[in-house]
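User: I want to check something. If I give you two sequences, will you return the structure for each one separately, not as a complex?

Assistant: Yes, each is folded on its own. Here is the first sequence with its structure:
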Amino acid sequence: MKRALQYTPSLFALRRQARPGVTTDHKTPYHGLRLKQGQLALLMASLLLVMQPLSVQAAGPVVLDMESQPLADALLQIGRQAQVEIAFSPGQVREKRALALQGELTVEQALETLLAPWGLAAQAQGEGRYMIVTARVAKGLSVLDPVRVQGQRVGERIYSREDMDQRPAGNRDLSGLLADNPAVRQNEAAKSGANRGSMALEDISFYGASPFQNQFQIDGISATNQIDPASRNLNLQAGNVPAYAQAYNLDTNMLESVTVLDSSIPVEYGRFTGGVVDAKVRDPKGDNSFRADFSYNSSGLTSQKIAPEQQKKFEAGEPGFTPAWTKRFSSAMVDVRITEDTAALINVSRRESTIDRTMRVLHYKELKDVSTNSKDRVDNVFAKVHTRWSASTDSALTFKYADRREDLVDSSMLANGIQWQHQQKAYGLGFDLNHDFVWGQGRVQLGYDQMNSYRNSDDTAYMVHMVYQPNGRLDYNYMSGGFGQESTEQRNLTLKSRLEFKPFQTGAIEHAPYVGVDLAHTKGEFVRHQDAYGGQTRHFSNGQPSKVQTLNFYRAGEVGVSYTNASVYVSDRLSWQRLALTTGLRVDRDNYFGNTNVAPRTLLEWDVLGTGETRLSGGWSRYYGMDILGIAMRERKSQLHTLLITGGNPVGRPSHTVYTLDGLQTPYDDEWALRLNQQLSSNVAAELAYVRRYGRQQVSIEGLAKTGHTYTNNGSSKTDAVTLSLMNTAPWTLGESLWTARLDVTYQHSKRNTKLADGYDGEAEELDDEIYYNGDLIRRGDRPVGDYNLPWRVSAGVTGMWARYGLQMNNRINWNGARTDVHYVGLNRGDGLEKYESGRVGSYWTWDMRLDWEPAMFKGLGVGLDVLNVLDKQAPVVVATPTSVLNQNLYRTGRELWLRASYRY
């Protein structure tokens, strides 16, 4: 049986419900009424929500000759040919593809062949009527998904709910889920054990692009921080509010799926130069079910290696370090049927890490260490209500809420009781309306999102205190206080509309067009909620009054920027024989910088043999990024600062740092992508991909605070990437077990003149300048890239399930190749040129394992164990400057155990 690698239609092409040609049993009584159009939809919805699987009744054989096609179309074809009714919801078949079928089969055999790879099953509803439902798996284990090749776009990878359930999870966030994606690179410091107790998100870069120019979405609505996504300074400073590109700190346990698009990205996606990550919130099924999950980890179950020179900071729990912690994750989900056509799901979770930190407190002229019990807590609340209004119309209303709060203390030598809190809080509403027309499908989405970051201190004056003896000599000094509350606040209003037309012919060419419009209004603000002060005070023991030597005034107030971005796009897929050409054009216009960006995208596909087993594809695309509002607010934010006193004398000098943005253009990436897909056997497929990215007009900064700063488009980059993937497209059997596997081998090589970790505070370098590297005089452009640099990586995952015993096991093996860190070591004395030296970071392996068991004697109960880094390999991931005599290396987190339990009712 052939499993063809065919083109996957877009989202709406897979939305199918009852169509002409599928018989409907009008004689069956429902509430004593005839089934009209709207009532048929109510019937289907109620059946989907409340019926339990029945044994499928045998029917006569049918002679089938079906090509690989969308699953929805295949089910409709079987229904027409066998004269049976097959009912299903759009969400069940969306973006799924059916295998080719030939031969004489019963309806039940045909349905089982089509549905089993997707974890679905046919449920008999009487003679000649079937309902598609989620397959029941013994002992409640997750369905063992095939590694998806069919049912995905070129350049797309879908992490299903089953995929996420099978993976060792760690902190259960998107950064961890995508860490081994072939297109993704992370800053290697993210893998260090020094701050393993933290719940912070890690940044990700797609193909060498800026990690702060990705498009994160929730159910298709942007959830991306546009104010200052690169702010990572955890220290207590006026005007400093840490933030993350992912405005919502999501618990992956709340999600139905995560779709990642890294290349050949369709025109409906915009405002990114890296990649697109769309997290889909769990859908309600209306099965009146309940589920609870609990996970536990601690520093006692985790091995950590700390360099001697880092040990003091580590033990004190300074920002960026967590010496001792206890993590408790809990979540609960309720899925209910409200009416026959409406179902709702409520999902809540709390992921909390309790961390031991040391705070210094002044006691009789001496600062002593006091242990504190700090929290790093992430709360998620998601609710979704799905309603079927008719056979052709359905809608979903989603509430989103994510709140992270991290307690921090200053453990430095002179700090006296200094503590503060960082908070990342986001909430919003999303509405999604879908309708089938005679000529195609339509979708309208509305979204409101409030995405804020806070830095909170109880005190509003941060002062350095210098205490003098009666003889005028300094006795002791200390620091105390804080800067009150400051925040960055982003408000998004989003309207998206898309129309997709049914395929039609013009001569020998088939067209599959769609068009769409996006409107997004964004308002960003920096808010200082109270007046705050910072400076230095001298105290005297001889009766003299205290004297303020330096005093800075940070005025309460807010500065903001708002703008509207309008986008329109059109795409058409032209198919002729074994060729298909997708052409698309996206136009974006913003009314703040006044930039109009035109982004063409193309993709040519060739089914080499006409069987779907060998496919070549290639295309060129342009991706325009988003405007970062924080850089537009910096100058006005600096005007909230006034220097009141310096040297003990009043000056009252307002601060004003000039930031020039005139003529700033939108950064963009140009991409060439080539792919070869080959079906190696009936259940094994391979993909070889090559991607080249050119980063152009990347934003950088020049100048000094005294003379003013200018933002420019002088940044540039070039990345070449090759990926070889092997995967099985359906589970294979070994004894009583079922197995799936995937292997990814990837190589990336980047050149760029900015440092990605610097975000928008980095200065673009001249690539033709001469520098010294390891003692040799070279062009700056020939120096290796330092950050987000991992040339070779191999990732393999193998999952086995023993349904009879309620057991499931996943093993993930990653090999990270050797790489080079680049360190600046000063200026050459002879000619004043900059000197750099390399620090080699060796290759290392990691092995992660997950075990799940659902014992038959305790129905609904499940227990599990995650073992990350089974072999306890604590290799260096960041090495110190070669000229330094101090060892400040960061080491890979060692063996880490997670205990898990769940209950389903």
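And separately, the second sequence with its own structure:
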Amino acid sequence: MRSRARYLVGRDPQVAEIRQVLSDAREGRGGVVFLVGEAGIGKSRLAAEAVGIAFDSGMSVLRGRSSTTGPTVPFRPLTEALMSLFRSGRPMDDLPLGPYRPALGRLIPDWSSEAQDSSSMIILGEAVLRLLIATAPPEGQLLLLEDLHDADPETLAVVEYLVDNLEYTPVVLLATIRSEPCDALDMADSARRRGTGAVLELAPLTRPEVGAVIAAQLGTEPDGVPAAALERLWDDSAGSPFLVEELLQSMISGGALVQGEDGWRVVGDLRSDVSTALARGILRRIDRLGPQGLTLLSAAAVIGRRFPLTVLQRMTGVDDRALLSHLHAGVAAQLVVPDEPAPDWYAFRHSLTAEALLTQLTPARRAAMAGHAADAVQALYPDLAGDWCPLTAELRSQSGDLDEAGRLFAEAGLRALAAGAIGSAITLLGRAERMLAGSTDPARRAEVLEALLPALAEAGRFNEAFGFAENLHALGSLNAVRLAALHTRLAKVAHTAGRWEDGNRQIDRARALMRAEPDERSSAPIDVTAAYLALDTPGQDRTQLAEKLARNALQAAERHGLPTVVCQAWELLATLARERDFDEATALLESALSTAEKHRLPVQRMYALTRIGGNNWLTEGDTGPLLAARGEALRLGSATIVYTIDGILILDSVLRGRFAEAERSAAECLTVVQRLRLAPATRYVLMAGATLAAHHGDRPAMDRALSAFADWDGAGSQEEPLTLGLARAFCALMEEDRPGAVAQLRAVRELEDANPSTYYLSGRYGVGLLLDVLSGEVGRGPYEEVAATAPGRMRWNRQFVLFAGAVLLGREGRREEAAAMAAEALRLAESYPTALYLGLRLIAEPAHADGWGDPVTWLRRAEHHFHQSGVSQVANACRAALRRLGAPVHQRRSGSSAIPDELRALGVTVREYEVFQLLPERLGNKEIADRLYISPRTVEKHVAALGTKTGHPSRAALCEFAASVLG
């Protein structure tokens, strides 16, 4: 159908830009345009002009609009737009969509099948992109999505994918968005910043442009508009084209503005309340349609701003001829418009029109009409597929039938959850729960809560989820199985939030309820949730208990056909299997992934992908699968997984030496996870932040991060060993305090023996092994045992294992093999500069002693790196080692910027300041000399100079002064 605005005023620059984008698309250079402005500013009119331009140039047009009736429905505007392809009569079965066609079954009912992919938003986005390209004629294709501010999160996820990938296609995406805070507007702004989309902001009309609109409406020239009318409309409309037209119609219908032989003139009072004038004007125009027209449009307003003729006719009983006659009259009166491209759908030109109609209905009349509308929908579409279900739920709610409304909202929410639309599911299930709060059937409300609680947890909305725990007593008439299921859901929420004590209390309540009537089917979800909590609960046997519970749950779930529990159990068992064999862990995760895909469990699929990505990162150092899983979690709306992966990516940046990037990302992420009270993610990010400071040798910053870590229940957590092995031990090594590092790594062993961890980067299988080999505490046998373990083969650990192996080979006189193994270690460590240069610093002197490798070159490289990084103590140690090896050493005098201003003013030198920094520890001259790799005599001279320069000649006074300056 051809569509075009009747007239367009003040939008020439925007029209020109749209013409250019459409022209580019015809040359194979697609684009994205967002029309942004307040309600009534003319977005739809400009979009209609774009449609007319596209039609004139031979382009095909697909149109969809987000729902403004009731809650959002996943993918509604996309489905509406794409369905028009199937009404065109062109063959669709032979399109070159390849493996992406099944994914489109989520949007196109004709292509729906049992085998369709029901989870990946990335795949769905690619599928839509390929369909748009495949169906575009040579002249190109325009996809128009209106009212994107009302779109569901899932639609926005697909649209965002299109925005990033339309550049080299013959497709233009044009979307309208209100200029009010919303996710769609954020997406448009992001696209503008990235250069992947244009944002055309529609400003209010100027005074001359308002005059031009009035003239067009009155059928006269601008100078024929009465000055008083222009002044009033300019003042009252604030430049909104819609308000100009409505207020003008109100003036005319009220008799204040009339047309005479000499043109239009004012004959009455033009002043009135804008909202009242609008309502009166709209109702006056409706009155002219007669009583049946008023009834018909009132019924349409009850349905919503958009309404289908089939439902309207069914609820009013009007015959075809009368229905179309009144609708055409409504179109002529500028009250309603055909809702292209949906056949047999109309829409009110503005939401104010529908609101004005509703004001003249009594509450009882409106409720009755809503009930008739719901009856009509259910009679015509008994399956309530797609958005018929939430529409009917909204109508039942308006009619006062809260139980039925709750049931329908619950059904719509469960459908959204099954499709992986977590955001929409929470909205719909939340409505259902509120509707059923006063229901006499608590089982139905319990069913809603069983789905709503985990969805809230995935979205990071823990306070809302825990709020329901206080009201479970109101469901006391439930049977034990149903009530136990709710306590289990709350336990899972607690696990996700990192609140293992609360989770264990909920598990105890669930088990107490099941004690009287044991039921294996109902106990399986309890066992698997208890297994996850066991792994978080401090205790020496936590991994064994978690594995036992998970295996019990798996066996019961397989017997009773509980695929969600099967996936959860396999995922946990895979985590535990990493210590034995990564191949075994990956096989278990592949089984979980396959089960999730087979049973259309998008959340469990996302978890499996995340754990597979985590395994890839641990074994290969590859973040690609993790990033893909993060994108999937983002599109599903799982805040918990997004920020869990962010924590891993931050740590990866630290280990790769991308310190500025890591610091920036950690600050951003920490703000969010602390606000959401995501304890596990918060602890992980704080641990990564402490590691960042440690690798800089910045002990105060590390201590601050670890203090915050302790405040988030860090003691006994799985992240605690990492704070010792990745942070404290490395900080000691950056201070050349090798005994201190060894002590921290001993503490790691004690901690992991008392509270086994499934995190294996704490140094026990890496840098700790290297230090033990260097000290002579570990020989060939124990080394081979560690090197053969799965954690010993992890990417971060493996480089240290190889360094240690090279040292052992050198001691055994196998010099060539030692050099070869060191070369392999250097190759592996290339991506991890701190590990690389620390390894070189640690193995250089043993290599020199045993006559293998290139220790002088290694020390020079390490010295240069740590000097550039500002880690002076390691750089000094490298220089001292070079001297011991008889190699020439280039003196460096940088570092004066680190000296406090008050000391620099006293003439304190860089070397004197290095001594000054150690004085608060009350070390003797020999201890300081050992730390700085200088002679005790030199230390004595520096201390004497410091006493003179600072005015504190006694050593005790100088130490006190140093402590006060350094804080």
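Because they were folded independently, the notes below concern the second chain alone. The CA atoms of residues 309 and 344 lie 6 Å apart. The chain has 46 helices and ten strands.
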